[in-house]
Amino acid sequence: MKIGTKILILFLTLNFLSCKGTAQETETKKPTTEIDFSETEKSSIPKPIGMINDYGQIFTESERSELSKILYDYDIETTRQIVVVSIDSIKPYNDIQKYATDLGQTWGVGTAEKNNGLTIVVCNPCRQIGIATGTGTELILTDEICKKVIEEKIIPEFKNGEFYSGIKKGVIELIEKWK
Q1: Ranges for the TPM domain (predicted)?
Q2: What CA–CA distance (Å, rounded) separates 166 from 153?
Q3: In a designed cystine with 85, which of 41, 53, 113, 156 is the match (CB 3.0 to 4.6 A)?
Q4: Are 154 and 146 in contact (CB under 8 A)?
Q5: Closest CA relative to residue 84, chosen from 44, 136, 129, 41
Q6: In contact, 93 and 126? CB cutoff 8 Å
């Protein structure tokens, strides 16, 4: 055998052995599939477009403007933030309250230091409404108060097809109780 061929065989053998050694040293792991449903749910949350997020198109332009002014003025006066969202579906959620809470947290409604946000979500096709409060807000606006506002101010207007009137009355009542 020629010397060049021997060197080539030696080189290939050493190269093969070094690859084999590396393969033995690395640990193999079985691929696993983990599904995090909370991320799936949060990915269904739309991006915010303002204090009024009328994805369900239940308000007119003038109603959105008027309600935005009320919420903006209240935010400037108190640093408390209220966001109103209308949607056509809460899927993959089953509970509008959980959806409203996740939406408020994802969007960062209210200030982080005071956790003083309030998120109102209306799903007209689902015939559901939910109000989620930040931990600072719920010290004043308890679940009982929010439920009472929904039942006494918002739902009666909704039953007459007056979505804007119901939300406006509910917002004004919540602002009054939050002072």
Answers
A1: 52-175
A2: 6
A3: 53
A4: no
A5: 129
A6: no
Q: How deeply is 84 buried, as exposed, middle or buried, from its count of CB atoms within 10 A (0-12, 13-18, 19+)?
A: buried
The amino acid that residue 164 corresponds to is Y
Residue type, 101: T
Q: Distance (Å, rounded) from C-alpha 87 to C-alpha 102?
A: 14
pTM confidence score: 0.74
Encode 88-135 in three state secondary structure.
CCCCCCCCHHHHHHHHHHHHCCCCCCCCCEEEEEEECCCCEEEEEECC
Find out whether the peptide bond into 92 is cis, omega within 30 degrees of 0. Answer: yes
pLDDT per residue as tens, the chain (179 positions):
565 555 555 544 544 444 444 444 444 444 433 434 445 455 678 898 889 999 999 999 999 999 999 999 999 999 999 999 999 999 889 899 999 999 999 999 988 888 899 999 999 898 999 999 998 898 999 999 999 999 999 999 999 999 999 999 999 999 999 98
